[in-house]
Hints:
The chain is mainly α.
Amino acid sequence: MEAGPRDTEQDAPDTHEAGRLSPDGPDELAVTPEVEVELRPARRMRIWQLAPIVMLAALGSLMFAFPLAFEVGDGGPVVAMLGLLISCCAAGWGMMAARRVGHTWPGLPSRGSGERADWRVVALYVAVCAVLVALAVWRVARLRG
């Protein structure tokens, strides 16, 4: 006896109905609609990814805000710029983690879509970042003078 798939059609009694199959294929009633289901779970940022980003952002924000608000001695500008650096690092880390799970900035195409970003959206993001950096540097420079 050969090992192989079992031929169940020889063993089973004939249960086919004569009108069930047509020359074109199965009847319309026998066809069920196909439903596509995503087998992989949605990619979301986990708490272990978010916690260090949030902690660094909070620490950097406090280091930036307190010397600027209360003008603490000669070391204030240095601490403020260090806080700004830590906040920017946390923001960059957050953006990279978000990009890794598939999120994009509003107005920009998703990763791998092949679309080009609109230059007006990119210019708006660059302008907003430049204004924020200029305001931060201006405020720290005012503390020194």
